[in-house]
Amino acid sequence: MFRHTFVTAALIAVAAAASAHSYRAGSLTIQHPWSRETAPGQAVGGGFMTIVNRGGADDRLLSGTSPVAAEVQIHTMSMDGGVMRMRQVTDGIAVPAKGTLALKPGGYHIMFMGLKRPLKRGERIPVTLRFQRAGAVTLQVAVQPVTSTGPEEGGHAGH
Amino acid sequence: MPDTSPLPEPSRLARIRAMLWLAVGVALVLAMAAMLIRAQSQDTPSGNHAEWFGGPFTLSAPDGRTVTERTLAGKPYAIFFGFTRCPDVCPTSLSRMARLRSQLGADGMKFEIVFVSVDPGHDSAADVGRYVALFGTPIIGLTGTEAQLAQIKKGFGVYSAKSPLPGGDYTIDHTATIYLMTATGRFAGTIAYDEPDATALQKLRRLVA
Ligand SMILES: [Cu+2]
User: Fold this and answer.
1) Which residues of chain A lie closer than 8 angstroms to B122, CB-CB?
2) Which ipTM did the prediction report?
3) Cys bridge to B49: A91, B45, B85, B103, which one at CB 3.0-4.6 A?
4) If you measure from the C-alpha of residue A87 to the centroid of ligand 1, how many angstroms do you get, rounded to a whole number?
5) Structural domain that includes position B25
6) Is the Cβ pair A147, B136 closer than 8 Å?
7) What is the distance between the alpha carbons of residues B152 and B58, in angstroms, rounded to a whole number?
8) pLDDT, tens only, A93-147
9) Contact (Cβ atoms closer than 8 angstroms) between residue B95 and residue B131
10) Which of A44, A77, A147 has the CB atom closest to B85's CB atom?
11) Chain A partners of B179 at a C-beta cutoff of 8 Å?
12) A64 in any annotated domain
C-alpha cells in the first residue's frame, strides 16, 4: 500500500518535472529556460530561467556557450532615473545555498551575442551553462513570442 | 480682582487647540498642493513646455520615406526610443503597447506606436522595420543619422549613450520612458517603464478621446 503510494507519487513527480521543462546539475535545478524570438539582423537575444540550489553550499553561474551564438554573456540590467543600463557580469552570479537565482526580464539574464541566425518561436536552442560547483549543464532554451514576459509552459502547477 | 484678568482657562485652551488644528490644516493643504504641482510637472506640462516639447525632427522609415513631426501629425502617437538589440526594455515596452492597444478595442487604432532606434551604427531603417513587425500590431519603426537622432533626442529630452561590451561590441543605455503626443504634436504626458497597465491605459484613453 505504502509502496504503491510512493510509486504513484514518484511517477507524478517525474511527469511534473518533464512538463515543467527543467534540468538538474548536482544540487541545482534549472527551470523554464526561455528566450524571445528575434528578427533577422537583430543579432542578440536574452535568455531567462530560474536556478534553484537545494544544496548546502553556494554555487556560481560562471559562463555559457551556445552553437547559435558567437558568445553567451551574463548580463545585468538596471533602471536608473528612467534610463535602462545593461552591463556584463564578469565574475559570475551567486546561486545561494538553499536559495534561488532568477534570470528574468528587468534583471540578470544570459545574452546571446552575435546570433548566427534568428531565433524562431516554438524552437528550442541548446545552451551549455558552467557552474563553479555543479559543473557544466546543457539545457534547451524555449523560444517564445517576442511579446512574452515570462515562461509560457503549462507545467507551473507541478511545483 | 482686576477686570483685566486673562480669559478663563477652558476657552483659552480651546482657542490654542483651534489654532493648532488650523496650522495642521494649512500644512496639509500646502503639502497636497506641492504634490499636485510636482505630479503635474511630471505628467502634463502646461503652456510653453507642451509647445516646444518634441520639436521638429526628421527621420527615415523602413520604406525609405522621410518622416517628420508633420508627417505624424493628424493622429496622436506614443513614441519611444531604443535599439533592436535591446534585450529587455524595448521588447517589453513594445509588447506592452501592443497589449494596451488591443485592450482599448476600437480606440486602439486611434493612435500610432512609434519606435525610434538610437543605434544607427547597427540598425538600418529596414532593420527597425523587421524588428517592429514581430509585435503583431502596426508599429512605425524609424531611425536616422547621428545628427537627426541628436535632434529628436534633444527635443524629447532622451538620453542614450553607447556602453562598450567585451569583444568589441556595445550596448546602449537609453531612456525607457514612453512619450505621448497629441494629433497636433503637443506633449500629452508620459508612461514610465514600470508604471502599472491600469494608469497607462487611462492615459491612452485620454490621448485618443
Ligand atoms: Cu543583455
Assistant:
1) 43
2) 0.73
3) B45
4) 7
5) 2-43
6) yes
7) 8
8) 999 999 999 999 989 999 999 999 999 999 999 999 999 999 999 999 999 998 8
9) no
10) A44
11) none
12) yes
In a domain, A43, yes or no: yes
Tell whether B103 and B191 lie within a shared domain.
Answer: yes
Domain count, chain B: 2
- State whether B118 and B194 are in the same domain: yes
Question: Which single residue is written with the C-alpha cell 509647445?
Answer: B51
* Tens digit of each residue's pLDDT, chain B (209 residues): 445 555 555 566 677 677 777 776 667 666 666 655 554 444 444 455 666 788 899 999 999 999 999 999 999 999 999 999 887 889 889 999 999 999 999 999 999 999 999 999 999 999 999 999 999 999 999 999 999 999 999 999 999 999 988 777 889 999 999 999 999 999 999 999 889 999 999 999 999 99
B128 contact residues in A (CB cutoff 8 A)? none
Give the burial class of A127: count Cβ atoms within 10 A of its Cβ; 0-12 exposed, 13-18 middle, 19 or more buried. buried
Are B135 and B154 within one domain?
Answer: yes
Question: Which CATH number belongs to the domain containing residue A132 in this structure?
Answer: 2.60.40.1890
Q: What pTM does this model have?
A: 0.76
Is A150 part of the contact surface with chain B (CB cutoff 8 Å)? no
Domain that holds residue A39: 21-149
Test B192 with A82 for CB contact under 8 angstroms. yes
Give me the number of domains chain A comprises. 1
Neighbours of B57 (CB within 10 A): 23
Question: Do B18 and B75 have their domain in common?
Answer: no
Mutation target among A36, A42, A87 for the B interface, most CBs of B within 10 A: A42
CB burial of residue A69 (10 Å; 0-12, 13-18, 19+): buried
Do B104 and B174 lie in a common domain? yes
Distance from Cα A146 to the centre of ligand 1, integer Å? 15
